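Instructor's aside before we start: the two examples that follow are unrelated to each other. I chose them only because their records fit on one page, so don't look for a connection. First example below.
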Amino acid sequence: MKKVLFFICFSCLLFGCKKQEKDAAEIVGKTAKIYYDYLLHDDYAAFVDGSFRPDSIPSSYREQLIDNAKMFIAQQNKEHQGIKEITIRSATIDTLHHTGNAFLMFSYGDKTKEQVIVPMVERGGVWYMR
């Protein structure tokens, strides 16, 4: 009886931990998608602010990053008739190092698709793009 009870408790603990890791990975994927949705909706500043920087950056450099995001979208519009949809394919997480990877699928206007890996890092309880 003790062995059965021990096995049940151990199984619950094991499966309970797996669920928490899956939920955390899901957060990584959703956060990356939110940042790229900012990009699709022309909120370039919010997209740039989603990138992790250990220190503050000069406003001129921030403006350059915003211009780069605009150029990226312009290039996608020219080459693929724009990004029409972004979906989350999967996400992984390394809880020890507070990092993760989000696997996003870009669906373009020309009907092509591309999987993009977005490396993420957690700082202060917030997930940022690396």
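Example two begins here.
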Amino acid sequence: MIIPAYGSSTLADLLPSVAARLGVPGYETDRLGLPAADRYVVVLIDGLGWDLLQGAAAQTPYLGSLLAGSRSLTAGVPSTTVTSLASLGTGLPPGQHGMVGYTSRVPATGEILNALTWESDLVAQDYQPKVTEFERARAAGIAVTSVALERFESTGLTQAGLRGPAFLGFREERAVDVRVALTVEAALRGERSLVYAYERELDHTGHVDGCASPAWRRHLGRVDRMLAQLREALPAEVVLIVTGDHGMVDIPPWHQLIAEEHPDLMAGVDALAGEGRFRQVYVDREPVAAVARRWAERLGDKAWVRTRDEAIEAGWFGSVDPELRERWGHVLVAMRTDWAVMTRQFPRELSLIGMHGSLTAAEMTVPLLIG
């Protein structure tokens, strides 16, 4: 089990370290030992885990060349895109920004919020009102820009955890020349600059085909070539930082445990949310300890089963704002081995091969590469 070292070596520490280097007021310490510069490009590759990258040297001549002398960071808990991007954007642990997973229950309404699609009347900036690192940098006179798919500009997740930058959008993800040109343009703005660029397709390929698949490795090779092209196009004084938001593990279909097929698991349960590797169990009518005990007995050494209070006490989410506490499930089920707890509430997830969300090293550790 990997417990994040919030404040020293997590995704939430990356942009505060960049801010310190750029001279943003209130940031005195570069926690990660980044190179000094006036211009930074931070590229986040969705699904690029540390273990996965180390095992793919043949497909990554450029990224592989950066591994020597590099280090890893950890995602927050759960190790999933919603939580990781919010941690990156706010510079805060999950316990402070409250974006607690792919899906979660909204305490005030009881609705299950999918924070990626955000098909909800919730106002994203109200749900996550903490100031982002991008907003702070922009207020300090830094030219801050996000380069991503056009349709991501106004999503709920962007407005919740990544708001603040100017936005340069592209329509075609395979239009590498366009993406590189936009990123270089953004990096050269102003006297000091910070660019955030996002690549999502590697994660999608892993979910559909598995992270051990030839398709995943081929796509990683395309990402590697794009980053090599970007580094060549950027002026030498621009520091390129490459990281990921989580790793991934492949789950055999016969290791998908369907919660609804086990009455002992569903007894006393009012709602399920989260993801297959980090299931959040909401309990309103029965003692939480009794529900946790049944889940632990059923799953045995396949999972770490903790109550919300136990997980908070163990530091899974960092310091937790009391107003956000109810967003997490009363019982949290983090898978240890190559198993997942699925639910018929989310039938599309039953076709996934690659998954993430738990506290294993393969899911929690991501690279911090300096190009």
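The mean pLDDT is 97.
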